[in-house]
Design a protein that fits this description.
Layout lengths: L10 E5 L3 E13 L2 E12 L10 E4 L5 E4 L19
Antiparallel strand pairs: 1-2, 2-3, 4-5
Length: 87
Amino acid sequence: MDLHHYKPEEVKITSDNTKITINAKHEEKQDNHGYVSREITRIYKLPENVDPSSISSTMNAHGILNIKVQKKALEEPKETPIPVTFK
């Protein structure tokens, strides 16, 4: 996600285990044309097969935010004994 207008400390990322919310906001700043303030919010639904506790983020020097999340570990197939009855 391109957030080059924002500093890392102006970006807030939260998750409620079903979605990730990214909010970036900075106060009024003066530019060549006057004053400007910006705010952006993006909400992304998490796939069911990911581990919400594994979410991490990085922002590079160009303001590109990357979010990473790992897939849930696959469960080993469980063997269930089935009794045989005779009639």
